[in-house]
């Protein structure tokens, strides 16, 4: 009896891990193929081969599932690091060259629109999207280094700049305009150069 209970104890976490993986994989597949509007817990359960209650035990909403898919790298399997060559504007543009093609590729715009819809219902999706694209860590660290190197003024609002750049990326990709990438580059250059010591620090009001 004790040996049987020990086996149950050992198998439990294994089964749980397998079920979690199946659920997140099913969520990612359905989310990418059908979009957020058509994503249902029932559909995910059927795709994953589990009961709905198994899903609700770990995730209270569809948004929570999408947030975990993002944090696990199941929607964006790319490391969006920002280089540090000593030229802040060029480094951020190189980061954009990595991010934009992923979002601008066939299906990328639809995926981003679904993520925006999911974020409207669950703020964790927006937080994890920011993390997945490297804004929260890589971009913030590079902007902070820009202050250290004198390419951004002391007191430049690093977090606000990162969020403004992310918001601009989202708006430009969703606009579906042919020159969206060029317009994004122009705006990012303006934002970063406006915050250089030669032009004075950006105030919180200016960053909004």
TrEMBL record:
Pfam families: TetR_C_11, TetR_N. Residues 17-77 form the HTH tetR-type domain. Keywords: DNA-binding, Transcription, Transcription regulation. Residues 40-59 bind DNA. PROSITE patterns: HTH_TETR_2. The keyword Translocase does not apply. It comes from the Bacteria. This is TetR/AcrR family transcriptional regulator. It comes from Herbiconiux daphne.
């Amino acid at each position: 009896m004790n040996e049987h209970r020990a086996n149950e104890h050992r198998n439990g976490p294994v089964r749980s891990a397998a079920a979690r993986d199946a659920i997140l994989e099913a969520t990612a597949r359905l989310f990418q193929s059908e979009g957020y509007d058509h994503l249902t817990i029932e559909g995910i359960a059927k795709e994953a081969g589990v009961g709905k209650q198994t899903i609700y035990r770990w995730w209270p909403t569809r948004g929570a599932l999408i947030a975990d898919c993002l944090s696990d790298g199941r929607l964006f399997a790319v490391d969006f690091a920002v280089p540090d060559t000593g030229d802040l504007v060029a480094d951020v543009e190189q980061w954009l060259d990595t991010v934009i093609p992923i979002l601008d590729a066939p299906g990328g715009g639809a995926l981003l629109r679904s993520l925006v819809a999911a974020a409207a219902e669950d703020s964790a999706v927006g937080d994890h999207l920011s993390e997945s694209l490297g804004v929260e860590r890589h971009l913030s660290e590079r902007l902070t280094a820009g202050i250290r190197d004198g390419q951004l003024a002391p007191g430049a609002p690093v977090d606000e700049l990162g969020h403004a750049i992310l918001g601009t990326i989202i708006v430009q990709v969703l606009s579906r305009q042919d020159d969206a990438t060029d317009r994004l580059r122009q705006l990012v250059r303006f934002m970063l150069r406006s915050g250089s010591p030669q032009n004075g620090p950006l105030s919180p009001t200016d960053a909004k």
